Each structure stands twice: as structure tokens, then as C-alpha cells.
């Protein structure tokens, strides 16, 4: 294998996507929006937001680095980039996780128990996926588990900050988990269309069932968010509900235009950045 340490690094904007920084941006914005529920008057702990960004960056880059430990050739452009510069990215990952470990001591104690539980769950997940053969239908477990980890860290963490949890936050938190799963399933679908050798959830489900699930999530999202709009007395919760409807509408449009998602990497970046749409209500 080529020594990645000897390869000079030259920055390109697409690297921000391959390093999952668009996912980090979406996570930070979504957490900030969730932490303000239900009335937009809830105090925000910005240290927790910084910690979240570092943890998301560390987990996603570590996951891709572990994927590249397999002897087979990289299966996507992102994996090729990470293998080429893995020495540098290992340092970035270690720095993000190390700084997060330092900052955790300054966060609310209520969050420690949640964070410790998430740490054990994420460690188990990374161990599990490292044991699954690359060409196995068991790769399908990655999308639902990753969705649970992402939604739990981004939205669920706001329930452990020592404040009362509103019913609006719980309902919209469930919606956020569904949208996270819908996004991962959608891009899993795009990868299955583009790369014949990829084994993921969409390939295991087959195309018809995959599209049915994506459509069902969109319908459930609209129904649950409209329920919040009608029954909540807080305008902020209503506005955030409409933003979540806009996110699933974007996913639905992407599902109807798969040729763009398969062939255009910039289109995929936009797909990741839809989770930054809650910025419009902040």
C-alpha cells in the first residue's frame, strides 16, 4: 500500500464533504435548534455544542478509517481520499476525540451518564462493523444503528441537560430520527445504484421496498409535524416543525431524481446540508 504520510496534501473544497464536515454542520445546527424547544427562550450551552461537533467529527472519520483497514480497494471517492491521507486524518481524529474528552469535564453532570452510555454503544457499534465482512448483507445494520447514534447524540442529548423536556421536543426528536434514517437509506440507495460491489441496507431491501420506506417516512413526518403545528402553543416549535417537513421534502425530491444523487457529488453535499436548514428558525 502506498505510504499516505509521503503524499503531500492539497486542499480542495470537496475534502470538507469527504471529512464529513457537512454532517458536523448539520449536527451542530440541529442540536442548537432542538435545545431551544419549545419556546425559543431556553438557554443554550455552547460548550455542549462544541463538544458535539468534535464527537461527530471523530466518530465519522474513525468509522471511515476503520473501513479502510480492510485489504480490498477503496469503494468510493471518500474512502480513496481517506486511505491516501490516512496518517493526517488519524491525527485529526485523535485530536478531535482528545479535545472532546477534555471538554466533557466542563459539561453538566446530567450529560455525563448519557455520554457514557453513548460511548459504550458507539464502541460496540465500531467493533461490530469491523467484524462484518465487506461483502455481506449484514452490512445492512450500519444505517439504522448510525441513525440511532446520530439522532441520539444530536437531539437526545438535549434531554439530559437538567431541564424539563417538552412533548414537542420528544415528538420532533422522533421525527428527527426518522429523517436521519431516511437520509442514510437514501444515500445507501444511491450507492447501491452506482457501485455494484457495495453491500448496504438498500441493496438488502431491494429498490421497491427501499422507495416504499422513504415514502412512508415522508408521510409520517408530515403528519407528526402538522400535529405539532396544530396542538403546540409555541410558535418556535411550529416553525421548526415546518423546517423538518422541508427536510423530508428535499429527501423526497432527491428520491425522485436519483440520477443527480448518483452522479453529482455536489448534489450529495446539498443532501447532507439539509440538516442545517433549522438555521432558518434560529
From TrEMBL:
* Keyword Repeat set for record: no
Q: Does the keyword Translocase apply?
A: no
Swiss-Prot/TrEMBL keywords: Membrane, Transmembrane, Transmembrane helix
> Any stretches that span the bilayer, and where are they?
16-34, 46-66, 87-106, 112-129, 167-190, 211-230
* Official protein name in the record: Prenyltransferase
Organism of this sequence: Arundinibacter roseus
Amino acid at each position: 500500500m502506498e505510504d499516505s504520510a509521503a503524499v503531500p496534501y492539497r486542499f480542495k473544497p470537496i475534502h470538507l464533504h469527504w471529512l464529513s464536515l457537512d454532517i458536523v454542520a448539520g449536527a451542530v445546527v440541529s442540536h442548537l435548534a432542538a435545545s431551544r424547544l419549545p419556546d425559543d427562550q431556553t438557554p443554550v450551552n455552547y460548550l455542549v455544542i462544541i463538544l458535539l461537533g468534535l464527537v461527530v467529527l471523530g466518530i465519522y472519520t474513525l468509522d471511515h478509517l476503520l473501513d479502510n483497514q480492510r485489504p480490498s480497494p477503496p469503494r468510493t471517492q471518500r474512502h480513496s481520499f481517506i486511505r491516501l491521507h490516512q496518517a493526517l486524518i488519524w491525527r485529526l481524529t485523535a485530536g478531535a476525540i482528545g479535545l472532546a474528552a477534555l471538554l466533557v469535564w466542563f459539561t453538566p453532570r446530567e450529560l455525563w451518564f448519557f455520554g457514557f452510555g453513548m460511548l459504550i454503544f458507539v464502541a460496540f457499534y465500531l467493533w461490530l462493523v469491523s467484524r462484518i465482512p465487506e461483502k455481506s448483507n449484514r452490512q445492512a445494520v450500519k444505517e439504522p444503528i448510525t441513525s440511532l447514534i446520530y439522532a441520539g447524540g444530536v437531539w437526545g442529548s438535549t434531554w439530559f441537560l437538567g431541564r424539563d423536556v417538552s412533548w414537542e421536543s420528544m415528538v420532533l426528536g422522533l421525527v428527527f430520527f426518522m429523517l436521519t434514517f431516511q437520509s442514510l437509506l437514501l444515500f445507501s440507495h444511491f450507492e447501491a445504484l452506482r457501485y455494484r460491489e457495495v453491500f448496504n441496507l438498500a441493496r438488502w431491501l431491494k429498490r421497491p421496498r427501499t422507495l416504499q420506506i422513504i415514502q412512508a417516512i415522508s408521510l409520517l413526518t408530515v403528519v407528526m409535524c402538522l400535529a405539532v403545528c396544530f396542538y403546540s402553543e409555541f410558535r418556535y416549535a411550529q416553525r421548526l416543525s415546518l423546517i423538518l417537513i422541508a427536510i423530508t421534502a428535499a429527501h423526497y425530491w432527491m428520491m425522485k431524481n436519483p440520477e443527480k444523487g448518483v452522479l453529482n457529488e455536489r448534489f450529495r453535499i446539498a443532501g447532507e446540508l439539509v440538516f442545517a436548514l433549522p438555521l432558518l428558525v434560529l
